[in-house]
Amino acid sequence: MSRKLFCFSCWVGNRLAISFRAYLRIVPCLALCCAACARVGSPGGGPEDTIPPCVVRVAPEDSATRVSLRTNPRVEFSERMNKASADQAVFITPYPVRYPRFEWSRGDRVLTIGFEGGLEPQKTYVITIGTGVTDLHGVRLASAQAFAFSTGDSIHRGRVQGVVCDGRFVPASGLTVGLFPLQEGLTPDPAVEYAAYVTQSGNAGRFSIGYLPDGKYRLFVWRDANGDGLIGEDEPLGLASADVVIEDGAHVRIPAVCLGLADRTGPRLERIRALDIRHVELLFTEPVDSVRVEALEPVFDARPIECIVLGTPRASNRVVVYCGGLRPGATYGAHVYAWDRAGNPAEYAPDTTSFVASGQVVTTRLRAESVEDNRAISPDSAAGFSVWTNDLAVPASGFGRAFQDDGTIVDGAWRRVHANHFEFEATTLMGSGERNWVVPLADLRDDRGNPCEDSVRVTLYPVRQDSMGEVSGEVSDSTPGRNLRVLLRETEEGPVFAAVVSDSLSWHANGLPAGDYEVFAWYDEDGNGRWSPGSVIPFVPAERWAVSGTVIVRPRWTTAGVAVRFE
Fold first, then answer.
1. Is the peptide bond before 60 cis (omega within 30 degrees of 0)?
2. With the CA atoms of 225, 228, 233 and 235 taken in that order, what torsion angle do they form, in degrees rounded to the nearest 10?
3. Could you tell me which of 317, 319, 352, 347 has the C-alpha nearest to residue 334?
4. Quick one: which of 184, 183, 177 has its CA closest to 128?
5. Is the bond preceding residue 538 a cis peptide, omega within 30 degrees?
6. Contact 166, 260 (CB under 8 A)
7. List of E strands, 78-123
8. Considering the chain, what percentage of its residues have pLDDT values greater than 70?
9. At 83, is the secondary structure helix, strand, or coil?
10. Could you read off the pLDDT of 421-469 as tens digits, one per residue?
11. Could you tell me if 516 and 552 are in contact, meaning their C-beta atoms sit under 8 angstroms apart?
């Protein structure tokens, strides 16, 4: 009978003075209570069980050597366990050729692991009880517990440890951590290969994998939702910022690892078609962040036709490409290179990568497609805005004027960011007043010389100076990399602000609305302006990152000395 269940029969047995008549009245209740005690499950009443189970004894003992090949390892727990949970959270290294037998005894408190054919000679075995193992009430182990033994004369002593985090960079328990020994010329693929060493993260996301032989390893972290030991397409994955090297049995602590690859399925090109003699439309299954297109006519000319992807302010699954020099009625093959925001490359079938050039003349006039304005700007920053046109636009010599409502010219400069994307920045600071501008775009021309007939209205307003604060601090790193970036982001999914970083790794940011922030720093190795989680194949390590605790920004106040530490 479980130590956590209270059985009414025990109470009856201790009441020696109970009358026979009273006893007869409680017999039905007694029968019901005993039946309830016989069932496995959580009790209906009493305080909730929150005490984690633990491993109290193992055999062979940890670090035992010269263990008999006929030994069946045993693990004794502090209480009755959920047997099904052990099937997916007990890990054995090296992985047996045949799946071992799990046998339970002593009221489901003792697990015996039977190896078909026995243990192998001169081997170090590591058995890890992961945090996914639970008691009858679903309470997990507080941390993974491992023990090792050897059928030979020695035990490996290397160890790797660290912290793993979810996709929000918050330490997380219950994540699977796997180590793959690296062999020259081979790249491990955790989607089809089992890790040689496995554990699960415990409280505060901490993990430790011990008893490692010297060598080089690659570490992956994932949320193994189906418990199959492999990384599925829909299971978030994290990569370390470098491979792990164990020498002379060293204990290595690695930087924190984040489940940055939540999406590992690339977009698929569903359709490509000509809109008119100049434009081709690409339709993907999901928004794409980066696109490059080459078109060529295989029969007559192997040289690529000029193709310019028209930009949009936000990622979209519909992409329009400007193409020059197409022959109406000719069939073209298209080389499409596209990636989503997670960096996954696009996939496409052969029948979706060709199109027939249209003879339809261009009838769409040049217009302003999107304007980025109506936003708050710090009073000591330059006022400006962005505009996107629906087609390739060429600025004429007079392009670059903006007017206030009273007709006064706004001094500033235009910059052509892309074929259809332009930015304007005023030469004066935003100041304390709202700005309302009228911007004629007649000096923008399409490829046929037709002007844009639109004028856009732009509204900018200042952030109140007395509502803003300032933050400064330093980045601490024993092995600093290159291109350090620091961002401050509101903890409640608010806007993101970039800090100015000096060569000495100090940083500061001003013009911040009051609120709670966290500071995120990383080394932007690929220079794309955002943190990159890496890639499995081809292997690219995640960029090193660090995050601070909560930083409080107060109006008219400088919060100084905020430390961000890289491990």
1. yes
2. 20
3. 352
4. 177
5. yes
6. no
7. 90-93, 101-105, 110-114
8. 87
9. helix
10. 998 888 876 666 777 888 888 889 998 889 998 888 888 877 666 778 8
11. yes
Q: Which residue has the higher pLDDT, 24 or 126?
A: 126
Q: Which letter, b or e, does each residue of 427-445 get, where b requires 16 or more Cβ atoms within 10 Å of its Cβ? A: eeebeeeebebebbbebbb
Which token pair is 407? 């007709």
Residues in the chain: 567
Q: Is 136:2 a contact under the CB 8 Å cutoff?
A: yes
Under a CB-based contact definition with an 8 Å cutoff, are residues 216 and 244 in contact? Answer: yes
Q: Please tell me whether the peptide bond between 462 and the residue prior to it is cis, using omega within 30 degrees of 0.
A: no
Closest CA to 63 of 249, 266, 330, 322: 249
Closest C-alpha to 156, from 132, 181, 186: 181
Asked whether the beta carbons of 292 and 199 are under 8 A apart, the reply is no
The dihedrals phi and psi of 287, each to the nearest 5 degrees, come to -60, 140
- Residue among 288, 283, 258, 260 at smallest CA distance from 272: 283
Q: What is the DSSP letter of 55?
A: E
Tokens matching residue 513: 């609305």
Identify the structural domains of the chain with CATH numbers, from first to last: 1-48 (no CATH), 55-258 (2.60.40.3710), 268-356 (2.60.40.1220), 368-462 (2.60.40.3710), 466-565 (2.60.40.1120)
Rounded Cα distance, 295 and 356, in Å:
11
Confidence of residue 396 (pLDDT cuts 50, 70, 90): confident
Q: Is 240 exposed, middle or buried (0-12, 13-18, 19+ CB in 10 A)?
A: buried
pLDDT, tens digit (0-9, with 9 covering 90-100), for 472-521: 999 999 888 889 999 998 876 666 888 889 888 899 988 788 889 999 99
CB atoms within 10 A of CB 122: 9
State mean pLDDT over 181-209: 92
State how far the alpha carbon of 217 is from the alpha carbons of 141, 207, 242, 245, 254, in Å: 27, 16, 10, 6, 12
Which of these, 538, 547, 532, lies nearest to 218 by C-alpha position?
538
What is the three-class DSSP state of 289? coil
Whole-angstrom distance, CA of residue 531 vs CA of residue 257:
13
CA–CA separation, 232 vs 539, rounded Å? 17
- Type of residue numbered 138: G
Written as one letter, the residue type at 224 is D
